[in-house]
UniProtKB/TrEMBL annotation:
Residues 145-371 form the Sigma-54 factor interaction domain. It comes from the Bacteria. It comes from Uabimicrobium amorphum. Residues 5-122 form the Response regulatory domain. InterPro entries: AAA+_ATPase, AAA_lid_NorR, CheY-like_superfamily, Homeodomain-like_sf, HTH_Fis, P-loop_NTPase, Sig_transdc_resp-reg_receiver, Sigma_54_int. This is Sigma-54-dependent Fis family transcriptional regulator. GO terms for molecular function: ATP binding; sequence-specific DNA binding.
Amino acid sequence: MSKESILIIDDNELYIDALEAILRDDGYEEIFALTKGHNVLATLENNKIDLILLDISLPDVSGIELYSRIKENKLYSHIPIIFITGHGDVKIAVEAMKLGAFYFLSKPVQPYELQTLIRCALDNSKLQREIASLKVQLQTNQSLIIGKTPAIKKVMTRIAQVAHCDATVFVKGESGTGKSLVAKAIHESSLRSKHPFIAIDCGAIPSSLLESELFGHEKGAFTGAVRKKKGFFLRAHQGTLFLDEITNLPLELQPKLLRVIQEREITPIGSDKEIKVDVRIVTATNDNIEEMVNEGKFRRDLYYRLNVFSIDLPPLHQRREDIPLLAQHFLNKYSPNTKKSFSKEAMQTIINYDWPGNIRELDHAIEHAVIISNSKEIQKQDLPSALQSKTSSPSLNFDSLYTLKEMEKKYLEKVLMHTSYNQTQAAKILGIERKSLWRKLKRFEISIPQNENPNEAK
């Protein structure tokens, strides 16, 4: 039974009753409700409130205005606020989050999502003092999450918000933007940091083996199972399991992952015994997962469970001010004893390039330059040829409007043409594995001319 008290502000009494039922099922006893906003300060004055669920559309005052009133009062500014919004109010709710709201939920609210976010918000509120010191800790733990731009600072703030609770986290961003580093930073900054951090690339393991890798198997469970194997979930017990490229998870395995999230237990292949697991799950993708959900290629219910708390990583070209810092970091990494530096021309070339492969491509480019350079200063000619020949990635013609799917296909074609259809080089620029590029070519029905790169390994 929870001692925390929650205030619901919503003009729909039936919806208040529904929210109260969800909260009482989760052990909350102290629940207050208002149907209008004008009495909120009096309610806060007369009662100890730990969290507010606020409808963004009220009859007497807007949710945004009410939020501002609460946060302007120093006595109540620490109270976390979760907005409840209708479909048409999502843009307003996003603006509220920019002002500092903890999160927002769209109606109809899913019980599990509401309960998880409330626990996360309450934990976050209790640990505000720890978060102040946590930011110092994050600077150490996020040694590769380097930057000073507002975009990357927002990412760091999101990590700090979610680190100390067990909500599932979905990290979204282009290939090479540092999704695995974010997952690692969440783990290292959490109460699970002394326990295992296990990372698995769902796209790198054959689908026929993935179930065994995740859940384990008993000896003799199938041909080749000569010994009992502990899966990734058990190996990550009490720690964090990072499922990268989650969109590559086969449809037939998705219900099993959903069940693990719901029940917190697994059943190894060949066993009839259920094993309890205590694992924090972080997932990531560079695909348009919402599109895949709409196309039936990824289960909607699983996506909702995975996307309780999301972190969006910006591409490198949107945080250009961070490029010199990152470039210097990689230079120190690959030449720790020689103290190399960049010439002005080389640094300007690095800054002006659009980095379609993001941080991973920058990492490889600096490593290449260190290998080529025979002086203490990196010159422009030491950089990869892609940077020397142009200072921006292959351009697209925006005279016509395209869907995201069409745009992705056109960009793939541009990169392939840019590399003379060298798939290994194209994959490196895109920041993906060659196997992933092959799948994309198959998906978009892009053919490679037979007379191009005949000697390249298939």
